[in-house]
Amino acid sequence: MSSARSGLCTPTHADVEVWTSSLKALQVYANESYSVGGDGYFGISGVYTTHDFVLEGANESIYSPPLYPAYWMPYRSSEVLIDELKESDLRGNPKYFPPSETFCADGFLGCRDHCSKSYACTLREEAGKECIVVAMMFPTYDQAFFQAVLSNLDVPAYFCFLGDTGMQNYVLDAQKNGSRALFYHYEPDMFHIQYKGLFDRVFLPRSDPTRVLLSTREFGENGYGNKTDNPVDVDFPSMQLMKYAGLRVKSLPIGALLAKLSISDLDISTLFTAYSSAKDDAAETDPYFRASCGWVRDNYATWSGWLDRLPLCTLQEYIINSVSGCENDSSVRAIEFQWETPNPADASLPYACDGGVTTLPATIRTSRSCDWIQQNPRTWSDWIDAKPACDTSFYDYSVSACDSAALRGVTYFWLLPNASDVLLSSECEGGAALPASVQINCEYMPASSPVFQVVTILAAMLTVLLLVAMVVVFLRREAPIIRRSQYEMLELILVGGIFTCGAAVAYGGRPTKLLCGLRPVLVSMGFTTIFGALVVKSLRVYRVFMRSAMKRVTVTLRMILKLLSFFYLVDVLIFVGWFSVDFPLPTVTTKEATEFRGSVDRITCNSSSFIFTALLIFWKAMLLFVGLYLSFLIRNVSVDFQESHWIFGSAVVVLVASVVILPLTYLVDLPAATYFVFLAGLLLFCTVLIMALMLLPKLMRLQESGGASTVITKTEVSTNSDENHPSVRRASSKYKVGPKTTQE
């Protein structure tokens, strides 16, 4: 406990049994230790003799008169009593005297040859008599007290120091052999428990605190066997044993424990008895622990008061939680609780608190994310006592794939359903109920839809008709009406119709990279092929018949195809730029649903910019209006060579279709199935209508004879350059061509 000296155990934090008779010697440590209070039980030192001697000494049949060895007075005058305890018996016993080591050095406290003696003994020896002997332990035990008391009471006695072991063995042998012994000892001590009832205390004059305080702790100060100046002449007082502790522990929890530690005389006696029994058990390896642990188990009422009352257990301070289910793909998280300091014997009990929350909360199973749990402890801590009311955060929904009816099913489900009823949640109760399932429209026309299949069949039938028409046109290409209509252009118009039929089908089905790129290409190529053919056809008629200078003009098929290739080149350049910079990939976007509260993933062909689409629309509009303009210029040319009415009608059809389709595409949010029906229907209808306008009039006139028109038809390819030719002049000036007369 102090830096002044060092003991066997360093550091020693407390000494829980200090005899106050040693307080003066303890003052050297006062700067680093303090008195914690009493132990609760009392200690007393005294002079003892064997119980058998006390009984026999009071028996008149053995000693007459009786000796009364339990009382101090006979010891100073009874020759018989002095003879029973004479000093020569000890000195004649080589087993114990002289002791194996010197416990009281010569000159210390009046010692000589291991013993000191009273002045009464000196006087008795001068008279040729012997003195009694008192077996002592160490001269520092109750230093000089009993030597001074017996000397001041005129008891002729030697005080021989044999050490604790030597003294105890000496008196035990005396008790066992029936001989007599007088010795110093103290209580409580294991000696008196182990040999309980074998020794009795000798009564000295009643203790008086004022006389006890006169002790000078000195003896033999005037020489060996001389009178002492130590005036104490009363019995040793019964004193409360004290506890001392180092100042370092005063402010620590153990300091409070030491201050309250207190046990009674009965408790210390019980502890000694238990230790004695445990020590005698050969199978016991730790008798100290067995005795103390048994006492703690049996005396809760005693030691529980030593401890400060533990604080009330609270969820926030003494219970910790851990969340499982975060390390894997589990959709269920479990909040488990445990005591911050659990009882070593039972982890379900607290160790650092008492009362309050006495049991651990049940595990909370939740669908909340681990991040949410960490950020919202105040919210879910209320769920310990009662489940929360159900709301939209406790359930989710799944959206099925598109079915043949172009619908998607939205099915609601609890994130953590009840094991016995999936319509109920296991993590909430009351509140919102699970919504009923709903159906929403698909964002595309599925290929399994009957409507898509009907459109596909119609497009296929139309394609077949267009292929048949191409064959018919090719086979009847020499017919006058077909030749004048330029059958190559008719074939291209029919090919454009086939492209449009393909576009009607391509706009159905789940968007893929192929379909997203193919849809605008088919529509564009169909439009360019049809109206490109009409434009170059009209341009050919214009160059032949509408030139002001009357000279031979040759417009070959190669020249026409070059011009048509230019139209295709513009398309190709736009598509190459579009697809290389911003390919319309199938893109999944999450949008708020209108049919239910929530969002849904929708897959569409998406480009980040509208510029290329706008370029295509602008280019097609230019092509359309050029065609309209040319048809207007050649409106007065013979109907056998120009098709202004049909071109104009076709343009009107395309314009009307555009007026319908463009708003549906960019301004109105229609269901995918409805939009597909409108788009595919318009594409097929416009294709049929344009093909009818361009082909039916010609097919109806296939049986007409060439007649006078044959000559003029030749002019379609090559026109006479003679400026005075009257027929040419009339054709050029009046914008019509007729049969030659005889005069011409």
Describe the secondary structure blueprint for this structure:
Layout: E1 14-18, H1 23-26, E2 33-50, H2 51-57, H3 74-77, H4 79-84, H5 87-91, E3 115-117, H6 119-126, E4 132-136, H7 145-152, E5 157-161, H8 163-177, E6 182-187, H9 190-194, E7 199-202, H10 209-212, E8 239-246, H11 253-260, H12 265-280, H13 287-298, H14 300-303, H15 315-318, E9 319-324, E10 333-339, E11 364-366, H16 370-375, H17 377-381, E12 389-390, E13 395-399, E14 407-414, E15 429-431, E16 438-441, H18 450-475, H19 480-484, H20 487-506, H21 513-545, H22 557-582, E17 585-592, E18 599-606, H23 611-633, H24 644-666, H25 672-700, H26 709-715, H27 726-734
Parallel strand pairs: 4-5, 12-15
Antiparallel strand pairs: 1-8, 2-6, 2-7, 2-8, 3-5, 9-10, 10-11, 13-14, 14-16, 17-18
Helix pairs in contact: 12-13, 18-20, 18-25, 20-21, 20-25, 21-22, 21-23, 22-23, 23-24, 24-25
